[in-house]
Amino acid sequence: MRPEASKRVALVFSLLDANGNGVLDADDFALMGHHVIEVAVDSGPAAKEAMRAAFQQYWTTLLTELEDDGEEVIGFEAYTACVLSPQRFDTTIAAFAEALSTLGDPDGDGLIERPLFVALMTAIGFERANIDALFNAFGPTADDRIRVETWAEGIKDYYAPDKAGIPGDHLVADTSP
């Protein structure tokens, strides 16, 4: 596993831990799903339900793969072991990537405009400078849009244990002056 992958998932773990108690539980995923769906005001009910289901699948996969003491909470080390294990998590992250990138394309033209991308990523908790760096790394069109497929692939790459130098690394980069 590359150190870049560890940094990426450490950031996501901290963002998912909505109540800051150091572990993940079902409420964290429900709350995150709510925040993300709330900013997708122009997306249809099917896209919103797919996003809600993807957050639920994310949690269910973690719980199924890792829960063995009946507490239904997931710590950082267990989280990392699961999400950076392609055989355990690839199907789940593919569903999540599809749902999130589709949510970003409410008009169905295959392109995501920067303002909605920023709103969705901000709702997850990423920093604005990092969000802009990521969007730029995806190679936006002249009218400042990225392809849905590009974002979906970027999300999948983010969870790849063997990848470095990917657009998603911008989310963990220090952007302070």
How is this structure best described in words?
The protein is built from eight helices and two strands, in the order H-H-H-H-H-E-H-H-E-H. With 177 residues, the protein is mainly alpha-helical.
Anisotropy-based shape: globular
SSE string:
HHHHHEHHEH
By DSSP, the count of extended strands is 2
Largest sheet geometry: 2 strands, antiparallel
Quick overview of this protein structure:
61% of the residues lie in helices and 3% in strands.
Keywords:
single chain; 177 residues; mainly alpha; two-stranded antiparallel sheet; 8 helices; globular
Helix and strand topology:
Blueprint: H1 3-16, H2 26-39, H3 45-66, H4 76-83, H5 86-103, E1 111-113, H6 114-124, H7 128-137, E2 145-147, H8 148-158
Antiparallel strand pairs: 1-2
